[in-house]
Q: What sequence folds into this?
């Protein structure tokens, strides 16, 4: 059975081999991607449509402000028309609260 020190040396040697293999495979992958980009004339926007590295799908609109669509003439409170309707417009004809 191998000693603790021998196993540590083996681990170090494997770590070096792993890192070399990783670098080699990344280099091969980058070369393939560059060849495909050149072959098809792709742009960054084609590959990363959201403009972010590693982005998936369309960009998030979370946190984006939406203009109000309705206003309560009595209080001046507004509502965008999204989410749960406020009490002042609930069950009423919304057309009379529309902001022009």
A:
């Amino acid at each position: 059975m191998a000693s603790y020190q021998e196993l540590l040396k083996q681990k170090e040697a494997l770590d070096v081999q792993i890192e070399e293999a990783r670098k080699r495979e990344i280099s091969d992958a980058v070369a393939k991607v560059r060849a495909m980009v050149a072959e098809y004339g792709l742009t960054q926007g084609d590959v990363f449509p959201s403009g972010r590295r590693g982005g998936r799908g369309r960009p998030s609109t979370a946190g984006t402000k939406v203009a109000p669509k309705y206003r309560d003439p009595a209080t001046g409170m507004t509502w965008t028309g999204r989410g749960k309707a406020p009490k002042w417009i609930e069950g009423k004809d919304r057309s009379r609260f529309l902001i022009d």
